[in-house]
Design a protein that fits this description.
The structure holds 3 protein chains of 3 kinds. In chain A, about 45% of the residues lie in helices and about 10% in strands. Chain A is of the alpha+beta class. Chain C contains 24 helices and 19 strands. Helices cover about 40% and strands about 15% of the residues of chain C. By secondary structure, chain C is α/β, with parallel strands linked by helices. The chains are: A alpha+beta, B alpha+beta, C alpha/beta. Chain A: Pfam families: 2Fe-2S_thioredx (PF01257).
């Protein structure tokens, strides 16, 4: 597997996962989820590997990866900050929270901080509208976030 | 876990686990018979836990779905603990004193099932709730 | 099996978990163990109670006492006081917001008073990770009844007679849909459960899957029996990890007990269910797009007909219903169509779950009979508007719906009435807006959402919505003209008429409905260049009120652009050329002397 510029140990685990699936084409999205969980993102080489392994055109894999917002081709920071932009959070000021995160982390373009510690994403509704506005860091949900809280949240992960 | 092979087996399984659920169903609670056991420190010291567990056991054995068993605080009749109050909708509540586990079971069998109030165990209520 | 005398039902839904309910469970278990009550008191982690605003929620039964906002310290006291000594801890009860009176019983709370729970019947009542709890509440009895006593035709007739309509938004008759798929001839058919709950602000499907996953599995199997399918898929959003986990457990347990798999309950009917994950594309809630996504492709919609009932997944006849629709099936089978259709209005039967969110006191999930008015839901169940502000509008139907103003608060809610007033039922999200929300900005928000989520396949949606968004940006930034408003209307109508799928056809609704009901606000933005709600920054102007200003200079010091000038103890003024409208002065002023208009 030297032809791919990828971690061969992880690749082996992915191969085992794919081998366990009978009907591969229909399982493409589940496979991509698994791959992104392992590698953190879906670089071109990884897409190519999956395409060949499943006997699907690489163009189709690329098409799927770019269609869904959950998949990313860019490496992600160590911590992923997801800011909910669903309607309930929006009317409760989620935009201000996003601006504050970007200001403190000094992110002007793209969505990763320069030191590679944080990636900021927005998503649509985690369904915890009772706690709006909501921020999710690496799967942990923070509810009723105020602009003043942003610095504290970042500090928690900077240690 | 063994597979369930028929609707009858499924129904038997349901009835077995239903007991676990009955106590949780609070719907329609105003139309149910409410039995409360005084479970303050003095009540517990006098064995109220045995009483309430016996009552619950008896209720589920008899499959009485119209009965709610709850614990209450101190009613002030420390001399007569454990105390058990039975409230049948539309009737005056009855307060029993010195109810051990065995008497608890009797209350279910006689008072709840057959409507026979056990006069000997009644203690006189000295207050009115406003 | 111990005969528990008391149960502590702790909500384990996403909302309450985020508020710390797992820690509360730990404390309960530890304390109960310590008190030696392990065989008498049971702690059960349940699905969502719907009252997320006040989470974590703990309900004590049979006492029927309802504690809100429980944390580990409170949990210790609840054990020591209530469980051991039988004294209800008054201060942890829910307090009526108006009278501040503590209400111990769930049924006393206005939030629960007008609710009838069918789809949510087991949420907050059983442990979703234990199949025996579901069996104890008549779980899988409907499937058993169908397999042993009814023909597929009879079941479909019953569902048709019940009047159940699709709860995902469209409102198509569920029985008819099943019948159509049954009539299509094929050696292979599929059942799909649409759990791609994408409308922002709607979370009823998540709650059902988290709180009562088996009811969905059971209903899917019943549907499979009716239409002649032996394979089902649940298409679920990747954003719902807890629901995915609960479903996995439920599926595994159902297989172990032979309630899924081959020859279910000794019959010759077999049914398998698999999970398929979404990947963050709103459009995949649309039936044909969803099918493409399950097949592993881009989730783009295709033209209907052919309908999925004729040619669906892998070109085979496929029946798709959403989670809440399936959650209604088992009660209909067990209690009968006549029971179900006695609830609701003439054309909309049964109940609907609504997710209340936004500027409302009781954010959460409610299930009410069809035909309740918006006023009853917002004021009686929802507890009115937060902070005593004025109600402005309620948005229903998500990005496909519209904003409903106060003139229509007394409309009885059903599918047809909502459509009549320019909105729609949608999946049941209800977002309440108050006087501080700008309707033009809200319309812009929804359009940004649609532009983001448009799959790009058809031109009206891909290009048209983008044009509409550009116009709205012009308006909110103060460059709007009256011609713009006409253009918006015309473009909206064209997109409605020509877009390929449901997403595109409904995408102009938020704009059109706000233009219809809040025309004055649009005109104010265009003609007077002001934002009446004070939201659109570009249109705001800050003023110092001379009668209130004492000349303390605090505002001048805090202004980042030195736009405020004035001498000490004299009225200050803002130089509007320099002002960047950051609002720092207003936040600093202790005399309320600064306003914005």
């Amino acid at each position: 597997m030297a032809e791919y510029n990828l971690n061969s140990e992880k690749l082996k685990k992915l191969e085992e996962y794919i081998d366990g699936i009978e009907e591969k084409e229909g399982a493409l999205i589940n496979i991509l989820h698994e791959a992104q969980d392992m590698f953190g993102y879906l670089p071109k080489d990884l897409q190519l590997y999956i395409a060949r392994k499943c006997n699907i055109p690489a163009s189709k894999v690329f098409g799927v990866v770019t269609f869904y917002s959950y998949f990313t081709m860019e490496p992600r920071g160590q911590h992923v900050i997801n800011i909910c932009m669903g309607t309930a959070c929006f009317v409760k000021g989620a935009e201000k929270i996003l601006t504050e995160f970007k200001r403190i982390l000094n992110i002007k373009e793209g969505n990763m901080s320069e030191d590679g510690m944080f990636t900021i994403n927005t998503l649509r509704c985690v369904g915890a509208c009772g706690l709006a506005p909501v921020v999710m860091v690496d799967g942990k949900v923070y509810g009723r976030v105020k602009v003043e809280d942003v610095e504290e949240i970042i500090k928690e992960y900077k240690k | 876990m063994a597979g369930i092979k028929s609707l009858e087996e499924l129904k038997a399984l349901r009835d077995k686990y239903k007991e676990n659920i009955i106590g949780r169903d609070t719907s329609d609670s105003e139309n149910k018979i409410r039995i409360s056991v005084g479970m303050a420190t003095c009540g517990i010291a006098s064995g109220a836990r045995d009483t309430i567990n016996a009552i619950i056991d008896e209720v589920s054995k008899e499959k009485l779905t119209n009965v709610v068993v709850v614990q209450s605080g101190c009613l002030g009749y420390c001399y007569a603990e454990p105390t058990v109050e039975v409230r049948v909708p539309g009737k005056e509540p009855v307060l029993y004193g010195n109810i051990n586990a065995e008497r608890g079971r009797e209350i279910i069998k006689k008072h709840i099932k057959n409507g026979e109030i056990q006069k000997d165990w009644i203690i006189e209520r000295t207050f009115k709730n406003i | 099996m111990p005969n528990y005398r008391m149960n502590l039902l702790v909500c384990g839904g996403t909302g309450c978990k985020a508020s710390g309910s797992s820690e509360v469970v730990e404390v309960f278990e530890k304390e109960i163990e310590k008190a030696g009550l392990k065989n008498e008191i049971q702690v059960i982690v349940t699905g969502c109670f719907g009252f997320c605003e006040k989470g974590p929620i703990v309900k004590v039964t049979p006492d029927n006492v309802f504690y809100v906002e429980v944390n580990p310290e409170k949990a210790v006291r609840i054990i020591n006081e209530h469980i051991i000594k039988g004294r209800i801890v008054e201060e942890y009860l829910y307090k009526e917001p108006v009278t501040k009176e503590a209400l111990p019983e769930q049924s006393d709370m206005p939030f629960y008073k007008k609710q009838i729970r069918i789809a949510l019947r087991n949420c907050g009542f059983i442990d979703p990770e234990n199949i025996y709890e579901y069996i104890a509440v008549d779980g899988y009895q409907a499937l058993g009844k169908v397999l042993s006593e009814m023909t597929p035709e009879e079941v479909i007739e019953e569902v048709k007679k019940s009047g159940l309509r699709g709860r995902g938004g469209g409102g198509f008759s569920t029985g008819l849909k099943w019948e159509m798929t049954k009539k299509s001839k094929s050696n292979q058919k599929y059942v799909i459960c649409n759990a791609d709950e994408g409308d922002p602000g709607a979370f009823m499907d998540r709650s059902i899957l988290e709180g009562d996953p088996h009811t969905v599995l059971e209903a899917m199997a019943i549907c499979g029996y009716c239409i002649g399918a032996n394979k089902g898929y649940i298409y679920i959003r990747a954003e719902y990890p807890l629901a995915i986990q609960r479903l996995r457990i439920a599926i595994k347990q159902a297989y172990e007990l032979g309630l899924l798999g081959s020859n279910i309950l000794g019959s010759n009917f077999s049914f398998d269910i698999d999970l398929k994950y979404g990947a963050g594309a709103f459009i995949c809630g649309e039936e044909t797009a969803l099918i493409n996504s399950i097949e592993g492709g881009r989730g783009e919609p295709t033209v209907k007909p052919p309908f999925p009932a004729q040619k669906g997944l892998w070109k085979k006849p496929t029946n798709i219903n959403n989670v809440e629709t399936f959650a209604n099936i088992c009660p209909i089978i067990l209690k009968g169509a006549d029971w179900f259709n006695s609830i609701g209005t003439e054309k909309s039967k049964g109940t609907k779950v609504f997710a209340l969110a936004g500027k409302i006191n009781n954010v959460g999930l409610v299930e009410v009979p069809m035909g309740l008015t918006l006023r009853e839901i917002i004021y009686d169940l929802g507890g009115g508007i937060k902070g005593g502000k004025k109600f402005k509008a309620v948005q229903t139907g998500g990005p496909s719906g519209g904003c409903i103003p106060k003139e229509h608060l007394d409309t009885p809610i059903d599918y047809d009435n909502l459509t009549k007033i320019g909105s729609m039922m949608g999946s049941g999200g209800m977002i309440v807006m108050d006087e501080d929300d700008c309707m033009v900005n809200i319309a812009k928000f929804y359009l940004e959402f649609t532009c983001d989520e448009s799959c790009g396949r058809c031109t009206p949606c891909r290009v048209g919505n983008m044009r509409m968004l550009e116009i709205l940006k012009e308006i909110t930034e103060g460059r709007g003209t009256m011609e713009h408003l006409e253009e918006l209307k015309e473009l909206g109508q064209i997109i409605k008429d020509t877009a390929l799928c449901g997403l595109g056809q409904t995408s102009p609704n938020p704009v059109l409905s706000t233009m219809n009901f809040f025309w004055d606000e649009y005109v104010a933005h265009v003609k007077d260049k002001t934002c009446p709600a004070g939201v659109c920054t570009a249109l705001l102007k800050y003023y110092i009120l001379p009668e209130k200003c004492v000349g303390c200079t605090a505002c001048a010091k805090v202004c980042p652009t030195n736009a405020i000038s004035g001498e000490v103890r004299k009225t200050h003024v803002i130089d509007r050329e320099k002002c960047i409208k950051c609002g720092a002065c207003m936040a600093t002023c202790r005399f309320n002397a600064i306003t914005r208009r």
